[in-house]
Amino acid sequence: MREAILEKETNYYTEDFVQLLEQSFSQGYKTAELVEGTVIKMEKSSILIDIGGKTEAMLPLRELSNLPFEKPEDVISVGDKRKFYILREENDEGQITVSLRRVHLAQNWEKLDQMRQNEEIIKVKITSLVKGGVIVDALELKGFIPASQLRTGVPHESLIDQELSVRVLEADPKRNKLILSEKLCLAEERKKIAKDVIAQLEENQEIEGEVVRLADFGAFIDIMGIDGLLPISEISWQRIKHPSDILSLGQRVTVRVLNIDNELNRVSLSFKRMEENPWVKIEGKFEEGQVVKGTVNKITNFGAFINIFPGVEALLPVAEIADGRVNPYDFLNINQEVEVLIKRFSPQERRIGLSLKDLNSPNLELMSNSEEPASENQY
Question: How many angstroms separate the CA atoms of 55 and 37, rounded?
Fold first, then answer.
């Protein structure tokens, strides 16, 4: 009976000891972590490292150094204590694979994550363009800046090899994911200097800047370190579909300060107002009943817009194209040159009405016989 009790207690303590021993070996090492280890054996294709696990960790020779070497002993020796990078977690046999050459990269991951937490700014260099953004070098690691986080909003070839100031959005070594933002960095810089810059600006002031971003609604112009908004309606007196019809990234332009919002630290700009208003220019150049040549700029269900002078569009209503019900798309094409009659001329209201069907009307012939023929508009 006593022997049975002793055997039971022995088994209990043995099982408990084994469990504690296994727990001591099971450190829960994770990929991309750094661990302390000691070199215990050099083999032909690998080196065994004691990192306190159930089995020795394996250091493949290819993971020994970033620099060329003739033999492993040139880099490391038995008994050396070093920090190692966990390359792969335990396999079915409980073995962990480590790397020595990636230690500095792991340290860089730590630096980047610390920068993220501290909201620090880092300098990076653009190396290539990819779908949706750009790839950069950041502390010897590959990082990604999404297009939405670029100042330009659009990746383009001229960005390659440029150095940018960015903030770290995400630094995850396990997923090898490094996401950066230029816009976040610029927003902070803009806050610091916006008030000082805006204090130097006045409405109607002319100032030179650089086109740094194009969007459907307009363009952003860098003036003295802050981005002013140039709305699409202020780019040209002529109707345009997109800012890129007139402007390009990196272009230097002189603009006029249209509006200053001191509360929001925003500046609105105008490019078209650097030139005289074409609606003012045409006063005295045209009159009702005059026949002119123009170019079709836009076709709609209710008519077409005809450019009869640079920056001036006149409306050709569908009812003035031909007698009866017509489809403007069957009669006209974009960029087509047409001869039209000015039926209504009101430049003060920025309205000019045209007609095609009245070109051959008796009234026009009578006017032509009683007066000198109206000269066609020459651009």
Answer: 12
Sign of torsion, CA 55 60 63 65? positive
DSSP string, 40-97: EEE-SSEEEEE-SSSS-EEEEGGGS-SS--SSGGGT--TT-EEEEEEEE---TT---E
Count the alpha carbons within 13 Å of 65 in the hemisphere toward its beta carbon.
Answer: 10
Cα distances from 301 to residues 329, 332, 352, in angstroms, run 8, 12, 18
pTM above 0.85, yes or no: no
The rounded distance, in Å, linking the Cα atoms of 238 and 254 is 18
Distance CA 181, CA 13 (A): 57
The structural domains of the chain, ordered by start, are: 33-101 (2.40.50.140), 105-184 (2.40.50.140), 200-274 (2.40.50.140), 283-370 (2.40.50.140)
Question: For residue 309, what are the β-bridge partners?
Answer: 312
Angle at 237 between CA 233 and CA 243, to 5 degrees: 50
Q: Report percent pLDDT > 90 for the chain.
A: 50
Task: Report the alpha-carbon distance of residue 199 to residue 212 in Å, rounded.
Answer: 22
Reduced 3-state DSSP string for 104-134: HHHHHHHHHHHHHHHCCEEEEEEEEEECCEE
pLDDT digits (tens, 9 = 90+) for 60-118: 999 988 778 888 998 999 999 999 999 888 877 778 999 998 888 888 898 999 999 99
Chain centroid offset of residue 337 CA? 39
Average pLDDT value for residue range 126-130: 93
Residue with tokens 């269900």, as numbered in its chain: 301
Look at residue 371 and tell me whether its pLDDT is greater than 60: no
As a whole-number percent, the residues of the chain with pLDDT over 70 amount to: 87
How many Cα atoms occupy the beta-carbon half-sphere of 104 within 13 Å? 8
User: Token pair 């792969």 is at which residue?
Assistant: 88
